[in-house]
Amino acid sequence: MNTPLRLGIAGLGTVGIGVVKIVQTHGEMLARRAGRAIEIVAVSASSRTKKRSADISAYAWEDDPVALGRRDDVDLVLELIGGENGTAKALAETAIANGKDVVTANKALLAHHGHALALAAEAQGRALRFEAAVAGGIPVIKALTEGLAGNRIERVMGVMNGTCNYILTRMEATGQGYNALFEECARLGFLEADPNLDVGGIDAGHKLSLLAAIAFGTQVKFSAVELQGITDISLDDIRLARDMGFSIKLLGVAQMTGRGLEQRMTPCLVPEAHPLGQLDGGTNMVVIEGDSVGQIVLRGAGAGEGPTASAVMGDVIDIARGFRLPTFGAPADTLIEAPAAVVSSAAPWYLRMVLLDKPGALAKIATALGDAGISIDRMRQYSHDGAHAPVLIVTHKAASDDIRHALDRFAATGVLVEEPVAMRIEEV
Amino acid sequence: MNTPLRLGIAGLGTVGIGVVKIVQTHGEMLARRAGRAIEIVAVSASSRTKKRSADISAYAWEDDPVALGRRDDVDLVLELIGGENGTAKALAETAIANGKDVVTANKALLAHHGHALALAAEAQGRALRFEAAVAGGIPVIKALTEGLAGNRIERVMGVMNGTCNYILTRMEATGQGYNALFEECARLGFLEADPNLDVGGIDAGHKLSLLAAIAFGTQVKFSAVELQGITDISLDDIRLARDMGFSIKLLGVAQMTGRGLEQRMTPCLVPEAHPLGQLDGGTNMVVIEGDSVGQIVLRGAGAGEGPTASAVMGDVIDIARGFRLPTFGAPADTLIEAPAAVVSSAAPWYLRMVLLDKPGALAKIATALGDAGISIDRMRQYSHDGAHAPVLIVTHKAASDDIRHALDRFAATGVLVEEPVAMRIEEV
Asked: Would the pTM of this model clear 0.95, i.e. be above it?
């Protein structure tokens, strides 16, 4: 048997304790699979004495997590603290500089500093792995970087924030509005300390930027993600979309186009019959499209102690086995700086608006669309109270800037009662 | 850059040519990802001059595929011939004996000889990989052996024969019977030369036996798989199942129980709302349940040139990167000979029968069930022509041998018009 792999764990919250439990419960199984023992040597967290669901008394303690990165008896540091800067970043940098491998569940850290950290790790010949940072327990990074490595990836899509998907599917199932369900999530503890990370799409956007970098061989660039959260989704939109056979999802999409790299995390309509449209509650789903493999769909729990710890352990076992893969699947110094596509690829769009009920109002909207070069697939005007006329339009494929031009023209008609709603229909 | 990885490809059918195309099209991409060039050196197939969709003139030719296993200029042999014995087996054995790595798409070979071949490969320190043998393009073996390696696997399930799933979903969608759709599959070229490999469940059973060995650390044992094909599925059953919210699938299930290893490839009812119930047409799906990760669902094309070649290339790239994993995820000499569970774990069952329409017939059936220790969840008697009474029963959870006893008791009542239909309802 080879020498044990010695872990230092920084952060003993949900994920950290989940990892401790797996190592304590499955020691023999892990050693058989990895070909060597996996041992916890030292830990660090904000409180040493806090009551925890696993016994950590056998491990050395560090008050300062960064000190784990300097211990001679630690081979691999697990950064499970979180946060894009501060201690997490200092720990990752220190560990790499001291020749240690690093596994993290920290999407914010990687989305903001992933390229620099990958360069540093590869210069040291060390691994920096982050399976747990994207879509919880789903081994999606492994699928992209290894199982599907023979493919040119054409598109990656994902529903990767369980809280948002919970809110949207509960709106559809119960007819409760966004605000009521937001409150429910707050009560249930489903929200990040800053809820905008969830409902503003930032958390999911971090994950998308990481998948995009891996899929397209680009330097991770979170600031280029087009972000829109779910706070403005109305029950009306959910019902109207459903009437037409669609579900509304906070959907991340990344694809390389002739105009650059598209990265979007926005509410989209997807067909109810596709697995994306069927995805209920807090579950995550990632869809990968490759030139050989076609469409692969991966579904599983996106958060929680067990699923996230499972993903961390997948990385740990790879490192124990001696598998050395560049952080983003290809050497960091080969990753390109892709320009961001300002205009998204063409797609059908869902447009909902309320018009003044006066002669010619609908004609003005139809004319504005035509002037913007957009043709109409379906249009419905709904029965109304006499003063206002709700109108729903599904367009044929249109570029996002044509849609923007059309919305500007709508505003100029003077017949809109309120800001129109425009959502992309993602073809899957 | 490291030395190139030199391939010898045996078999230039759909899969082999797919691999040739990927290597020819994506050479630069593969080299960047793998850290070294991947080159085809030599090939072999039944005909050298057959018209093919890729140019093979640059490669050395061997009339005898087994000779590829002895060439000094080949590092890795791709066995893409097929068949459980004969040339495929001789080639794999020869290549391993000559210190070469082997990648195969051959489920029959591995299901029958996988343990012996794995022992041989590991004794030589070589890799024997078979991602393409199970569920086509879905990287499921990688998920089980690596991404989810921190989990004790609790159950693996899969719909892994596209032809069977095509027939069942077309029966449901079109109301055509089994025989008509079997003929359609024959016309469309969806069937193996021996159709019983497909519709008898053998092909899918091979795949299940491989997943079970990996999931539970056991020696692969195809002969222990309980096999039942789809030839007896009637439109009546499909309609009645649907009325109750279920779909009928040829479902593989493997789980370790206190009574041994269960391996079943049989028609089952699954909830329509679960991804398994939603799976249409020729697509494959594998469901993995682990003690930490919960339930992971993987979906994709189960066959075809691109998807299968994608899986082969995943293995090739792993080997190019130097990743050395035992064939079944843990060293072959640690794999246990698990006893086969003769009695399957308890589940609800679907029972359909046609009774003589005479007083007391239904009571006799209900009594027989009770005497077998089985309680009834739902029972329906359908309107009928006066002579025969169709009856549908859904039981509460029952062991498979109790169901067998009940069926024996039914036969003894003398009120059955025909053999009853019994299918397990798999709880997912």
From this structure: yes
